[in-house]
Design goal:
- This protein has 85 residues and is an alpha+beta fold.
- It has one domain.
- Helices cover 26% and strands 14% of the residues.
- It has 2 helices and 4 strands, in the order E-E-E-H-E-H.
- It has helices at residues 43-55, 72-80; strands at 15-17, 26-28, 40-42, 65-67.
- The longest helix is centred in the middle third of the chain and has 13 residues, at 43-55.
Length: 85
């Protein structure tokens, strides 16, 4: 797949939970990235990210690992970056 000329995106998900959307997810190319440590995403947000992946050419030939934008690890990393995401 990685050597294919076909347009592909593989989304590496986290544990899923029910609940209202918490907004945009955060993602990393590296599964071991500290931002992903919480390993939790709302189902609705995962679905929205999948739609985004279909429409976002920057994600072609990428395999993003995702976590909820309000997951503790995402919030901690955002604080370390001074509020930037």
């Amino acid at each position: 797949m990685f050597a294919s000329d076909t347009r592909w995106t593989t989304v590496r998900g986290s544990e899923l939970e029910e609940g209202a959307s918490q907004g945009l997810l955060v993602w990393s190319r590296h599964v071991g990235d500290p931002i992903l440590q919480s390993d939790i995403t709302r189902r609705v947000d995962y679905a929205l990210f999948m739609v985004e992946a279909l429409e976002n050419d920057e994600l072609i030939h990428e395999a993003p690992a995702i976590v909820g934008g309000h997951a503790p690890s995402a919030l901690a990393c955002r604080r370390q970056l001074g509020g930037r995401s």
